[in-house]
Amino acid sequence: MPLWCQDEAGPYQAIPHPGPSWQPEGKPTCQPHEYIRGGTAKLLTLFRPATGEVRALPVEQVTNAVLHPWLKEELGAILAALPPVDADQPGSATPAWCWSEWGYRAEVLARLDRPAPPIRMVLVWDNLAGHKSEEIVTWCLERGILLLYTPIAGSWLNMAESVQRILVRRALSGQHPESAAELMEWLAASVRGWNRAPTPFEWGGKRWERRQRARQRRHAVGGSGACTRRPIARRRRASILDRIQNGNTHIK
C-alpha cells in the first residue's frame, strides 16, 4: 500500500533571498535598496517517501478551488497506476473492517453512496480546514484513499515539509526573483531537477542516532520527565557491616 504526504509550502516572496551565490570572491551581489512587492507564490506538493517521487505545482494562492482539483487530478493518476485490488488480499472481502482499524467510525462510512472500497493508498497531510472539507474527504473515501491527519503542533511528522525545504533552498537560495511568475518557474525547475534523481526518505538516520546517544547520556529524575546531564549524588545509608566495623552495634 503506497503512502504519500501532502503539504502547501509558502508563501514565498519575489524578493532577494539570503544564501550563497556564484559571485567572484570579494565582489558580493549588491541587493536593491528599493522595496518592490513582486508578488508571492506557494508550492502544492505530493511526496512519496518510499521512492522520493515529488508531484508539485507552483501557484499564486491556495484556496479549495485551486487545491482540490489539483489533488483529484494527481491522486487519480496515482490510483490509475496502481495494480488492481487482489481478491485474496486481507480485508478485500470486508473492507469496512480495515477502515475501522484506522479509526473510521461506521457513521462516517455510512455517508458513502456505496459500500466502502478496500484501502488502496494512505495520504498524510495537515490538520487544515480545507483538508477536512466533506466534499474532498468523501471523494477520497470513495476511491479507497485513507486520510491521516498530523496532530496539532505535529507537522514535523509530515515528510513533505522536509522535501519542500530542499526544493525551495535549491530554487531560491541567493537568488532574486522579480515576479511571482519567475518565482513559480524556478520552483517548478527545482522539482524537475529533483525527480531526475529522487532520494527516498526514511525515519531514523544519522540525526536520529545522534539524538539517541544524547538521550543515553542523560540521567532521569523521578517524579517527572526531567533529566540531568550528570548523575546526582545520593545519600548512602550505612550498611550493617559498616556499623559493626565502626563500633555502632545498636541496630534498629
| Class based on secondary structure composition and strand pairing | alpha/beta
Fraction of residues in helices?
Answer: 25-40%
Give the count of helical stretches: 8
User: Biggest β-sheet: count, sense, barrel?
Assistant: 5 strands, mixed
CA radius of gyration:
27 Å
Mean pLDDT, nearest integer?
81
CATH fold name of the domain at 3-82 and 120-196: Nucleotidyltransferase, domain 5
Using the coordinates above, name the CATH class of the domain at 3-82 and 120-196.
Alpha Beta
For the record, give the distance between the C-alpha atoms at the N and C termini, rounded to a whole number.
67 Å
Strand order of the largest sheet: 3-2-1-4-5
Assess the beta-strand content as a share of residues.
Answer: 15-25%
| CATH evolutionary superfamily of the domain at 3-82 and 120-196 | Ribonuclease H-like superfamily/Ribonuclease H
Q: What form results from the Cα inertia axes?
A: flat
From the 3D coordinates, which CATH architecture of the domain at 3-82 and 120-196 would you assign?
2-Layer Sandwich
- Low-pLDDT residue spans: none
Summarize the structure.
Helix content is 34%, strand content 16%. With 252 residues, the chain is α/β, with parallel strands linked by helices.
Question: Your description of this structure?
Answer:
The chain is α/β, with parallel strands linked by helices and 252 residues long. Helix 5 crosses helix 6. Strand 6 (219-220) and strand 7 form a beta hairpin. It has helices at residues 64-81, 95-101, 106-109, 134-142, 160-172, 180-196, 206-216, 240-245; strands spanning 3-13, 40-48, 53-59, 121-125, 145-149, 219-220, 227-228. The protein has a domain at 3-82 and 120-196: Ribonuclease H-like superfamily/Ribonuclease H (Nucleotidyltransferase, domain 5, 2-Layer Sandwich), CATH 3.30.420.10.
